[in-house]
Amino acid sequence: MREGVSYYKVSYVVQGSGHPGAIMNVDDEPQVGDEVMFDGRIFEIVEVMELMPPVGDFAFLHATCRYIRDVA
């Protein structure tokens, strides 16, 4: 977790897919290799970039991910 940051606004973009991705608020900073679930599917994060320096108690991040599987 970055100093002074309480939560992260993350833009998730899905590689090689027509999936629109998602924008979500999360408590923990996403890391490469983490799995995230949205829209009834599980994705693996392959890249994380800071979009801009933290503002107040939150940070803006971009995470590129790839589809792994549907939630059973």
Quick rundown:
0% of the residues lie in helices and 62% in strands.
What is the average per-residue confidence, as pLDDT, rounded to a whole number? 92
User: What is the chain-wise order of helices and strands?
Assistant: EEEEE
Per DSSP, what share of the residues sits in E-state strands of 2 or more residues?
over 45%
E-strand count: 5
**Number of contiguous helices:** 0
| Biggest sheet statistics | 5 strands, mixed
User: What separation lies between the terminal Cα atoms?
Assistant: 30 Å
Output the radius of gyration. 12 Å
Described by the principal axes of the CA atoms, the overall outline is elongated
Secondary-structure class:
mainly beta
Read across the widest sheet, the strand sequence of neighbours is 2-1-5-4-3
Q: Indicate the low-confidence ranges by residue numbers.
A: none
Helix content: under 10%
